[in-house]
């Protein structure tokens, strides 16, 4: 490639970078302005509830009085216009907290769930300040704060309003990025576990604004695509790929022993003026366990000691039991109807029992509503050549063994409801890797057996990020990520993400 062509492409990349920078500024200005308006709206809703709705309603007044410990008629009605000093102080405090916690950098806050956690904790901190102010300055009160219940309502409406709007904004931003507005064309250098994990996480969060053009192979594994991600060449092709694919940013995720290739990739990015980031491979250490501190500017890396938090696991088990029992009990009329539908759709038992492999390779019987004809196992051998999944799984969109009722059950995931009995028995958890059949486990590679280290689950990262739309290797990597980064927070987050995944039937067949 001539120097003139290289210079021309470099100019194109620089122009794209400038456009992205302007887009990021526009994003932040819009989000800051929007949040300021939403905070005023939240205050208005809280004020209206306190002084308009509750002020003249006996029942609600008594409820609010019981919760806050104050009489709802204790203070005279305050007009909204009289609260301007308090509104201004409230908006400024929360905006400063939001900004310092990175809420206006969508790539730092990440998914809507992480944004919500930041909003909840930041709003709680801001409202705590108002409560402290109320306690110390309730007599002089230059800001005009005259009600504890008003503070409680401000907290509630702020989280509610900002949460709903952030959800809408996240969806809208993801749509704009997919249309090419402000997106960052991203190249991953590395085909190992680090590279695959970063591709999965970025693809699962379209609101980050990245468009993965593909990855470069590091020659440590067999050549080929990784599920939906395309291999564009090897590390030696980085210059040509950046040019041909108009790459805006490069993430280098190479193993620790490939230092020379890391330096080569960095040099190429610097020469082309392409932004790059490095993901350190700390000799196989899980990056979430890395503890970093500095002494006089010198970085020191350590490894956090991992301890099984018995309390968190106890809470997880209690959640498993409570939710499973509640769903089975409250939905019993519906489960009875599904039982009748399954029996009428085809001969056979309404519950299908199948041996599965669970924690540490232990066998157990997994329960499901029967969604296939009685001779499904015998007909499997005739369909193996039509398998649409890579790896040991068998997946087929138009599987002739599935009954008409079974198609509905699978599309809505209702066929898995009886597995709640497995959860109650302790064979499974609500969240974890899907339980595999013995035939699949016999075909596992050694690294894939790591998904047997915890109880299998009714849902998991694999399910909420695409289910049947993902390759087997992609799914196993997600299961291993969950196992290595297990926490009560991640467990609850996956439970919440399961709701939209089931409602929209993403990847279900």
H/E element order: HHHHHHEHEEHEHEEEHHEEHHHEHEHHH
Helix amount, in percent?
A: 40-55%
By DSSP, the count of extended strands is 11
**Mean residue pLDDT:** 79
Dominant shape: globular
Strand content: 5-15%
Q: Which segments are poorly predicted (pLDDT under 50) over 5 or more consecutive residues?
A: 57-62, 71-76
Order of strands, main sheet, comes to 3-2-1-4-5
Largest sheet, strands/sense/barrel: 5 strands, parallel
What Rg, in angstroms, do the CA atoms define? 27 Å
- Number of domain modules: 3
Q: What is the SS-derived class?
A: alpha/beta
In DSSP terms (H or I, runs of 4 or more residues), the helix count works out at 18
Describe the SSE topology:
Blueprint: H1 3-53, H2 58-68, H3 84-100, H4 106-109, H5 112-137, H6 148-178, E1 184-189, H7 193-203, E2 210-217, E3 231-234, H8 238-244, E4 249-252, H9 259-272, E5 275-278, E6 290-295, E7 298-303, H10 310-330, H11 332-345, E8 351-357, E9 363-369, H12 376-383, H13 404-412, H14 419-425, E10 429-431, H15 438-441, E11 457-459, H16 461-464, H17 472-484, H18 488-503
Helix pairs in contact: 1-3, 1-6, 3-5, 5-6, 7-17, 10-14
């Amino acid at each position: 490639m001539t120097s003139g062509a290289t210079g021309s492409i470099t100019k194109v990349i620089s122009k794209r970078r400038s456009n992205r920078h302007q887009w990021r500024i526009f994003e932040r200005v819009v989000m800051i302005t929007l949040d300021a308006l939403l905070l005023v709206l939240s205050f208005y809703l809280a004020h209206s509830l306190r002084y308009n709705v509750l002020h003249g309603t006996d029942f609600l007044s008594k409820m609010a009085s019981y919760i806050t410990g104050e009489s709802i008629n204790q203070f005279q009605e305050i007009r909204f216009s009289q609260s301007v000093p308090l509104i201004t102080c409230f908006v400024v405090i929360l905006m400063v907290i939001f900004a310092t916690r990175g809420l206006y950098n969508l790539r730092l806050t990440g998914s809507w769930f992480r944004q919500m956690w930041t909003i909840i904790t930041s709003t709680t901190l801001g409202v705590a300040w108002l409560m402290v102010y109320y306690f110390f300055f309730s007599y002089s009160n230059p800001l005009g704060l005259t009600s504890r219940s008003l503070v409680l309502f401000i907290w509630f409406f702020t989280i509610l309003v900002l949460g709903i709007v952030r959800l809408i904004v996240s969806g809208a931003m993801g749509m704009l990025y997919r249309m090419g507005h402000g997106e960052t064309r991203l190249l991953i250098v590395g085909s190992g576990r680090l590279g695959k994990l970063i591709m999965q996480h970025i693809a699962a969060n379209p609101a980050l604004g990245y468009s993965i053009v593909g990855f470069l192979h590091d020659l440590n594994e067999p050549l080929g695509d990784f599920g939906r991600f395309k291999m564009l060449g090897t590390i030696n092709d980085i210059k040509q790929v950046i040019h041909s694919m108009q790459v805006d940013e490069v993430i280098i995720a190479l193993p620790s022993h490939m230092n020379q290739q890391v330096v080569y990739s960095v040099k190429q990015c610097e020469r082309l003026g392409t932004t790059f980031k490095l993901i350190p491979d700390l000799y196989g250490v899980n990056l979430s366990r890395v503890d970093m501190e500095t002494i006089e500017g010198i970085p020191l890396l350590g490894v956090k000691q991992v301890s099984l938090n018995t309390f968190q696991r106890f809470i997880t088990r209690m959640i498993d039991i409570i939710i499973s029992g509640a769903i089975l009990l409250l939905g019993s009329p519906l489960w009875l109807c599904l039982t009748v539908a399954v029996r009428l759709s085809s001969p056979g038992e309404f519950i299908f029992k199948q041996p599965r492999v669970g924690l540490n390779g232990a066998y157990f019987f997994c329960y499901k509503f029967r969604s296939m004809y009685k001779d499904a196992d015998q007909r499997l051998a005739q369909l193996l050549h039509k398998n649409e999944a890579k790896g040991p799984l068998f997946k087929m969109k138009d599987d002739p063994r599935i009954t008409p009722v079974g198609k509905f059950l699978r599309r809505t995931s209702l066929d898995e409801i009886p597995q709640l009995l497995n959860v109650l028995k302790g064979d499974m958890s609500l969240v974890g890797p899907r339980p595999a059949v013995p035939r699949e486990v016999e075909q596992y590679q050694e690294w894939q057996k790591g998904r047997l280290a915890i109880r299998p689950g009714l849902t998991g990262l694999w399910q909420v990020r695409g289910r049947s739309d993902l390759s087997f290797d992609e799914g196993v990597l997600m299961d291993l990520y969950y196992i290595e980064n297990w926490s009560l927070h991640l467990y609850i987050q996956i439970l919440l993400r399961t709701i939209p995944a089931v409602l929209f039937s993403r990847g279900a067949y």
